[in-house]
Design a protein that fits this description.
- This is Osmotically-inducible protein Y.
- InterPro entries: BON_dom, Lipoprotein_DolP, Transpt-assoc_nodulatn_dom_bac.
- Keywords: Signal.
- It comes from Pseudidiomarina piscicola.
- By secondary structure, the protein is α/β, with parallel strands linked by helices.
- It folds into two domains: 72 residues, Histidine-containing Protein, Chain: A (2-Layer Sandwich); 71 residues, 2-Layer Sandwich (Histidine-containing Protein, Chain: A), CATH 3.30.1340.30.
- The strands form two sheets. Strands 1-2-3 form a three-stranded mixed beta sheet.
- The radius of gyration is 20 Å and the shape is globular.
Amino acid sequence: MSSRISLPIITLIAVLGLSGCAAALVGATAIGISSATDSRTVGTQVDDQAIEIKVIAKLKSDDRLADTRIQVVSFNRAVLLLGQVPQSNLAGLAAQLTRDVSGVQKVHNEVRVGPVISLKEISNDSWLTSKIKAKLVTDEYVDANKVKVVTENGEVFMMGLVSAEMARTAIDIARNTNGVNRVIDAFETN
């Protein structure tokens, strides 16, 4: 019995002892768990990750967007663009470059004209997202695993494949969270 247990333990220790392998193992486990609870197929999740990478690369490669802050979120091949640009034509440029990326089916252009937000504002946005997610987890009518929450400068963007009732409930929860300035509905309802 002890030899059967010791071999897996020795193997695990050897794997974890290799440089970077512990992080890879933890990351792979987290991806596996989140994939299992996500409403999208695994293939769509992979497509969304690839779309985000392609869009980010395309936006970063355009020198006209150098003085901007544009975040990219893809969910079910719909891309949410948010952030700040100094001129409105740059928001349009970002949307057009995004539409040109293979696999993108829809673009929610929520980029705002204004100065790039501060690290304090970014930190506050993370806190708001955490508060909203915690409320969603405890709500009996919302499956928090199906709702993606992104906050930018006090504005909350909500994405996911949910029922119309679940979307309304999640939006109401976000609207009634202290510190939220606005809630943008980017849900796909079924």
